[in-house]
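Re: How this chain folds, sequence and tokenised backbone to follow
How to read it: Take the token row as a discrete description of the fold.
Start of record: The labelled sequence and token lines come straight after this line.
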Amino acid sequence: MNGPRTRATVSGLLAAFALTAQDAQFSQFYAIPTFVSPAFAGTGLQTRMGLAVRDQWPAFPGAFVSSNFAIDHYMPGVNSGVGLLVSHDRAGSGALRYSSVTGQYAYEIELKRKVFLRPALQIGWANHAVDYSKLVFGDQLARGGSVGTYEYLNGASINYADFGGGLLYFTPKYWLGTAFHHLNRPNQSLLGNESRMPVKFSLHGGWRTTFRTPIIKEHPQSLVLAFNYRAQAKYDQLDIGGYFERAPFYAGLWYRGIPLLKAYAPGYANRDALAFLGGVIINDLRIGYSYDLTVSRLAGQSGGAHEITLGYEMASRGRKRSMSRRRVVPCAKF
């Protein structure tokens, strides 16, 4: 196999990948809510940090590993929240990588007592790259693993700006929001062609109820029901479920898919996974773990998906008391 012919083949494969690429997904999407929408920036009491790492389909070689780190802060003096989101995806034994750094701003409007609306914007800078040296080409196999076609290919890496926005409405018991990512549809082609990233739309919301019993007063119990619908290009999915929280523990169950209304192809239902999650809250630290049980055609082959999240919220005692009385964001925390 000669160099030009292989370059054409690789070009076709990368072009196809670029056309079908979708954003990373997380089962514990509310562990880092600013990944869902910039409107969540500053919905903590003061300063909040979060980390999420997801290993998807580990039974397959070159599985997807995604990670997010976020920090956001609420500024009551100007009714604003600011956030910073750092994301990184790795696929194909590290050959294909995506990294981004995003700044976020949300303005909080109190419509009436304990009823809020938060419009938000975000601006990010992304890097999309492929390392050809980590790919195996046909002529390398023919030569017994010696250096082959990739020595004729230049390293591919592109940078681009990425814009998005969101809107969040919430009361002490429920929330409803929407977000748009990649509004400028950046060109993500690694080959100098044009491959526009499709806009991602999401609609998310939920309801929380907290109850106490005469016996248990210091450890309130909460039931949270929530959903997160996402659509990007011709693909869409719905996460729906909830969890029960009784400090310091919580447990929940989520379902991902739209099996009755949508299909990937004739006879191929839109269903993905059941996600089981659990964790512990220790003072201001949250530790979560979830496992996705695949229920699609890949069931029994993919190895599911493992996800670990950490969250930490910093606030002075005075801030906790004053802000919790005036403004409580009821959204799920995992």
Notes: The longest strand covers residues 115-130. Residues 3-20 form the longest helix (18 residues). The chain has four helices and 17 strands. The chain has one domain: 3-326.
